[in-house]
Amino acid sequence: MTSEYRILPAGDTALVVEFGEQIDRAVSGRVLALARRLDESRPAGVVETVPTFRSLMVCFDPLAVSADALAARIADLMPPAQSVEKPGRVWRLPACYDAHVAPDLEAVAAAAGLSPRDVVERHSATAYHVYMLGFLPGQAYLGDVPAELAMPRRPTPRPRIRAGSLAMTSTMTCIFPLETPCGWHIVGRSPVPLWQGGPRPQALLRPGDTVRFAPVSLREYERLAARAADGTLEIRPAEAPLGAAA
Amino acid sequence: MTPALRVVAPGMLTTVQDLGRTGFQHLGVAVGGALDPVSLQAANALAGNPPGTGALEVAYMGPTLVAEADDVRLAFAGADAAIALLDDEDAADGVRLDGMRSVRLRRGEAVRIGSLVGANVLYVAVEGGFAIAPVLGSVSTYIRGGFGGWHGRALMAGDRLPLVRESARAREEWRLDGLDLRPPPRIRVIAGPQDDYFSDRAIATFCASDYTVCAGSDRMGMRLGGPPIAHLRGFNITSDAIAPGAVQIPGNGQPIVLLADRQTTGGYPKIATVISADLPALGRLPIGARIGFTPITLEAAAAARRALLAEIAGLPARIVPLRVCGADIAPRLMDRNLISGVVNAYG
User: Which CATH number belongs to the domain containing residue B236 in this structure?
Assistant: First the structure.
């Protein structure tokens, strides 16, 4: 991969540091490494950073630092092209692939030339990288879905899907944290709230985390969903990240 | 009972907004906040509040609010509207109030705000602010996320918004003179971040054309209608972050300008981005308004931002006593038959 990047203005209060045009793990690694460096060094004038698949948006106050001066500071902080980001947390999230909560599972299986059981096996056997959070609060974009399961969006989006819907399109899969219109293929549902509402809201996942899905029965899903509803479902990272301090 | 402002009728879309919630876009949380932060801060200045205090943002048609406190001071800034001070919530007629002023309501008195004229939003600030706990550092209502403001939603009839103050400060009422809320002749933009997805000709079309603000515009985005902007190499990009004022061009070539409640990330190329100093003017443009865009440099954008901040900082200095019983105003109210002969001493 190339070490090149571009710094583009996004109005007068944001710069976009772009590392590529496609979804790519190495590109994501550089985005997240730069985000961490900026968050740690907090250069004057920087308000917040927004990591995405392929770029980092750096929001700033142009009266505290000029775009040129900030671009120079970003260049100073640029992680080396080969840098390896410290692994994030590792999660194992329960997901129910029962037909009752997976309206598109059969169609996805048919399109892929597989049985629904194969689709579930492959979807749940993959360790997904959290590329970014976006679109809705707490919504994590997880990739990459195995190539044989990748397919375009549904021709007609659904006007509403339920919170917790586990859906996929192209190389991405998501648990949708809130009710929303959606054109993705719904292959299951998870009881885990990725967005914790209330007076002190929190997102469960962070960019750079790793997620696997643990298939559960409809009955188990309902039990876990009831616990999520009354706030007693505790989800913790599955194991200590490699290299973390003891 | 705690002091409150009770919602008799909610209006079309009345929400609590402040200057927004920064620092959480990396979690997918929209910044939100007032569509027109200049008018918000003007309303707060008239109410005697710090500039970023949460106030009611009124869109399209206003609410009817009744005072459930010893007395409550409100202040209005933004779009014109028929604002009536009513003896009680059931009164058919009342005293007509101008905008850009403060007013004191006694217990049981109400204000009724009609349809907005000339601009998209009107702010109603309350002296001392609402007793609403901030969520993630802000009281802005984030409807899509279902949190912030008043239970994460627009006001409904019967809501009782708790107030910080039990009564209004003893002072005369104020008005604000000379705040120019007209939009600039052309909205100023910085090219990019994806201007390389468009031909020079498409960029020239964007800069030379007039666009109309279309129905379907909301707090997330302003939909424009006009000469379509053609893409050079498709309209799908790998999602990246969306800056305030980003002008994205979807498949149909009709621009959408992303506003306060914009989603944090998106997958259409963005031909240009409105400068921060012109976002308040953009936020107050009503459906049907005509606008155009003109590209400027980052240096010019910084100068415009400095000028806007100076104007906002100068708001308190423009406030003058209302003197509603002055010879020029009372006869006008009588002429319109809006008052029955007695002008309330407090306005």
Answer: 2.40.100.10
